[in-house]
Amino acid sequence: METRPTGAALGGDDLSQSSRATAISRWTFEVSRRYQHVLDKTVPHILNRWIGCLAVALIYAVRVYFVQGFYIITYGLGIYLLNLLIGFLSPQVDPEMQDGPTLPTRGSDEFRPFVRRLPEFKFWYSITKAFCISFVMTFFSVFDVPVFWPILLFYWLMLFILTMKKQILHMIKYKYVPFSFGKQRYDGKKSSSTENMNLPRD
User: Where are the transmembrane segments (predicted)?
Assistant: First the structure.
């Protein structure tokens, strides 16, 4: 006679699978929390972050140079980086879609810092992650599509020139610069001396 698993055995298997899923979920959450904690600690270290990003980009460039391939990945990476650059240089609220002024156009206007559509930290993080993913993809021959790389380089340069020309014309039209140099400060001593000069003398 064949023996069939009892209900207790089936219940034990379900409980075991549930405990495994819970353990995996907790482990994933803990890893994600630690990873986010490390990222948060790097926020104030702007120079060190960009030096690390430059090192990653250099490693990828050396890898592609010695392999002499994966140009289609590099082209896609260049298009993605160009898209990130446009988001970094663009204001969060497009003046064309806003009724009132969102950016100061005169020196006497109230100071309003430039708010980017893509913040600096996300800009850095997206670039670094893109280079890391592209570097890993160079180890899979399926992505090594044979292509004449000067054509891709020419297409990318033309796209870069046209896109940046459009962005610069947009800056000129709405009179903004995609960089904030800090809140304007006024010298109290200078203003007080000016007031003393304007006081009537006896």
Answer: 46-66, 72-89, 123-141, 147-164
CA distance 157 to 151: 10
Instruction: List, for residues 23-46, the tens digit of each pLDDT value.
Output: 888 888 899 999 899 999 999 999
Measured distance CA(139)–CA(77) in Å, rounded: 16
CA distances from 132 to 17, 43, 90, 120, 193 (A): 34, 19, 25, 18, 58
CA distance 29 to 152: 41
Residue 77: closest CA among 19, 153, 17: 153
Q: Dihedral angle at the C-alpha atoms of 51, 54, 59, 64, nearest 10 degrees?
A: 180
pLDDT (tens digit per residue) in 139-168? 999 999 999 999 999 999 999 999 999 999
